[in-house]
Amino acid sequence: MRSTDLFLALLNHKKRNLDELKWPGEGTFEVVLGAILVQNTNWKNVEKALNNLKNAGKDSLDGICALENSELATLIKPSGFYNTKAKRLKMLCLAIKNEFGDFENFKENASREWLISVKGVGAETCDAILAYACGKPYMVVDAYALRIMAYFDYTFECYDEAAEWFSSLDYDEIYKFLDSEEFDEVEILKLYHTLILEFCKENFKGKILSQNGQKILSNIKN
């Protein structure tokens, strides 16, 4: 099976318009906040934590850096594991400020090597920030993506191997199926990630794939 085949199968059965498949706050500092806060929780809890930060006027790089860890932990409590996340978020924001000065400079100049070296930033979190905050061509491989591959009895030795497989797309073939000319490599990889999320949320209950989901994936060559 090729990654391109999976992408096209999911694209052909998408339920929403392409412009609706967007990460909340894409291109803004909110993505950095969300990427840390969403660890081991669902997005509804993240939204509550983000609203707390916004209401307190602390939803910016400088705002986070100015908070004590205990104050930050209280604000992000709805996201769970709040003491750990407060430490990780504060450490990341201080590293960004010390290295790049401000968020816009970080967006422009951050590298994967630098970002993943920050304590508490794993590969998935790193790639989510690079893709959705910085607009760089990285594929985010999450538990949903691996669940689809497990259905096909595909396993990967590590995150980077999985990311390499998912990123190995035939763009010329994909462009034949996309109506919009706005999709470059960055946008296609983000779309791929979102299509995976949409498919899995609609068709998986735990590790059990629905009959509709099986039908969608049945025509992909394994």
TrEMBL record:
SMART domains in the cross-refs: ENDO3c (SM00478)
Provenance organism: Campylobacter concisus
Gene3D superfamilies, alphabetized: Helix-hairpin-Helix base-excision DNA repair enzymes (C-terminal), Hypothetical protein, domain 2
InterPro entries per the UniProt record, alphabetical: DNA_glycosylase, HhH-GPD_domain, HhH_base_excis_C
UniProt xrefs under Pfam families: HhH-GPD
Organism superkingdom: Bacteria
Organism lineage string: Bacteria, Pseudomonadati, Campylobacterota, Epsilonproteobacteria, Campylobacterales
Domain HhH-GPD intervals: 37-202
Keywords tagged on the record: 4Fe-4S, Endonuclease, Hydrolase, Iron, Iron-sulfur, Metal-binding, Nuclease
Molecular function in Gene Ontology: 4 iron, 4 sulfur cluster binding; endonuclease activity; metal ion binding
Alphabetical list of PANTHER family matching this protein: A/G-SPECIFIC ADENINE GLYCOSYLASE/ENDONUCLEASE III, DNA REPAIR GLYCOSYLASE MJ1434-RELATED
Example GO BP: base-excision repair
The protein's name: Endonuclease III
